[in-house]
Each structure stands twice: as C-alpha cells, then as structure tokens.
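Budget justification aside, the reviewers requested a transparent look at the raw inputs and outputs of the sequence design task funded under Objective 1. We therefore reproduce one unedited record. The lines immediately below are the structure tokens for a 354-residue chain.
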C-alpha cells in the first residue's frame, strides 16, 4: 500500500480548502479539538444516514439535550420523538445508555481514550476512532465504508471490504501513515473524500481528487470494479394492511413490542395480509371503511408494501395499551416511525376535518 505514503499532505491540503462547514466539526487546519459530546452525537446520527438528512435533526437534538447529563436523564418517549424519522432507533437508546454510563460510571467525564470509548454502549471501532481523534487528538484511524472505498481504490486492493481481515489490514495501513499532529483532520478528510469525491454510486470525481495522481484504480481504469464487496442477501417483501382508525379528531396508535423491528415506537395498527378480521379481533366497530392509499418502506432486511384503510370507529373503546392521539400529540409526544410517512398527509387531513 505504498500509495498511502503519499496521501497525507495532499489530502490535508484538499480538506482545508474543501471541507463542508458542519456544526459539530472544528475548523479544518485549526488544530482545535472537537467537543466530545457533539462529535459523538453526530457520529451516531451519521451511521447509515447522509449528512444532509442529519443536519436538522442534530440541531433540534442539541437544542433539547445540550449536555450528556440531559441525555442521560431524558425519558424514552421524549428521546424517541427527537429521533423520529432518523430510523435505526436503537442508536438513540444506546446513546442514552452510554450517557448514563458516562454520568454514572465515569463521574460525568467523557472517556478520552480509544479503549475507554469502546466500552460505551453503541460505540464500535469506527466511532471510537472518530471521537478519539477529533475530540482528543489521538492518532487512531476511523474506518467506515467511505474510508474503505477510498483505500481500496487508491491502493488497488482487491480484498473484500465486507471481510474483517480486509478492514483490519486497511486500518493498519492507515495507522502507519496517519499524521500525529492532525489525526482528527486526517480522519475527517478521508470521510469527506469518500462522501464528496470518491463516490460509491456512479463515476467518482477523479479530477477533483487529491490522490488522483497516484491512485491505482484511476490509473488502471478500475474505479468501477473497486472496492470488492460481497453482495447482500435480497430483502424479503411483506405485504401489510395499515388501519388508520379515527374517532372524531383523534387517531388510534399502539406501541410496538420492546424488542425487534421499530421496538417501542408508536404505530398505526397494521397486520400482514389484509381484510377486516383484525378490526373484529381488536374489538373495533367500524362505522365506515375506505381505502386511502398505498406505501412502501425499505428496511435493511425487509420491504413493507402497504395498503391503508381509513376506519371511522363507532365508539371509543380500544385494546389495552392503545391510545387516541390528536394532532398535538402526534407532533409533540408520540414517535411514529417514517415507515408510515406515506400516510401522514391522510392522517393530518382527517384530524383537521378535511
């Protein structure tokens, strides 16, 4: 991986000229360390989520929970409402659990070593490396999918980046070339290069890349073949009926089980398949039923293909644990996951009497 020896200086120069201004990021080249709480929250939010999608959520989250103590003390429903729409909700639960570790086991002080950070709930090698380097100046690589792609192409490495041994080899190679004075900038520059130039889909912007002069994939015209990655299993499809059950200016919600997909969140009642039999099982007496649309949501391992029925209930009785939510409750209290976003407008119009 001799090509990596040539990378740090042009990479850091490129980063200082081209880095996006982000609310959790120290100014490139300033050698100012990042705030560990802000860096940590941003890195957890950015797992499997694009920067553009995170920005508003991050600002809102920080306004509501500006300190690790506030995060440790927040209630489950409030936390889920702040996270609503970001998906992968266990990230938020692990954030709170780790905040409780920091306040309870660490005396309120953020761990300042890579090993100490790894001990926090929900913090893996990549996140620990990012926080350690950006917030504490530790020369530790932060290796995510973007970084693996960049290293694969620059070095021409044909190892499967889904395999642990490939990741370990690339991490060691980065450790060897990481500048000791600017480890945070180096890691962020690698992430930025993968996100903005060495793109995963479509043609990479090789003409704008600081490694363009010594990148093997570019020289050998193999950017379309690298990185090598094992194909994921095809997602299975599940057809579901969503029951939007209304009574006056309220809609019925139920809480999902505490474990599994969308654990603990509120949802519009739904079932695999269709028909009106579930209404009978739930004790719902319908005054009227009509189809009101279709929707699709893609999870990592499953696709929901949904049809929605609007049900006007004849009375207020609901199964135990269900609630009637009005418009104010949907906006401020109950976290309904984005899996049901296709039906949000229908619900809003019904609750407004339209």
């Amino acid at each position: 991986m001799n090509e990596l020896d040539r990378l740090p200086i042009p990479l850091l120069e490129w980063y200082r000229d081209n880095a996006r201004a982000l609310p959790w990021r120290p100014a490139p080249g300033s050698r100012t360390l990042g705030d560990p709480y802000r860096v940590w929250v941003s890195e957890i939010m950015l797992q499997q989520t694009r920067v553009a999608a995170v920005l508003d959520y991050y600002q809102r989250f920080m306004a509501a929970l500006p300190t690790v103590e506030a995060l440790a003390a927040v209630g489950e429903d409030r936390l889920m409402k702040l996270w609503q729409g970001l998906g992968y909700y266990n990230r938020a639960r692990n954030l709170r659990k780790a905040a409780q570790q920091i306040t309870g086991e660490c005396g309120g002080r953020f761990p300042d070593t890579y090993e100490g950070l790894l001990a926090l709930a929900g913090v893996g090698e990549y996140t620990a490396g990012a926080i350690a380097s950006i917030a504490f100046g530790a020369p530790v690589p932060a290796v995510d999918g973007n970084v693996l792609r960049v290293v694969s192409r620059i070095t021409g490495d044909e190892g499967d980046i889904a395999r642990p041994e490939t990741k370990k080899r690339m991490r060691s190679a980065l450790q060897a070339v990481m500048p000791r004075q600017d480890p945070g900038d180096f890691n962020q520059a690698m992430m930025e290069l993968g996100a903005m130039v060495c793109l995963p889909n479509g043609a990479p912007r090789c003409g704008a890349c600081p490694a363009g002069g010594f990148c093997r994939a570019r020289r050998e015209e193999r950017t379309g073949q690298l990185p090598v990655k094992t194909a994921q299993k095809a997602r299975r499809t599940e057809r579901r009926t969503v029951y939007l059950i209304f009574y006056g200016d309220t809609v019925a919600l139920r809480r999902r089980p505490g474990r599994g997909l969308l654990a603990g969140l509120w949802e519009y009642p739904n079932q695999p398949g269709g028909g009106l039999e579930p209404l009978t099982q739930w004790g719902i007496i319908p005054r009227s039923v009509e189809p009101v649309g279709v929707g699709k949501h893609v999870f990592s391992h499953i696709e929901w293909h949904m049809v929605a029925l609007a049900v006007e209930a004849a009375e207020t009785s609901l199964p135990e644990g269900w609630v009637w939510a009005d418009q104010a409750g949907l906006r401020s209290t109950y976290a309904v996951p984005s899996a049901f976003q296709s039906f949000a407008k229908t619900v809003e119009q019904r609750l407004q009497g339209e």
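Strands lie at 236-247, 250-255, 266-267, 270-272, 286-298, 302-313, 323-325. The CA atoms of residues 57 and 63 lie 10 Å apart. Computational costs for records of this kind are itemized in the attached budget.
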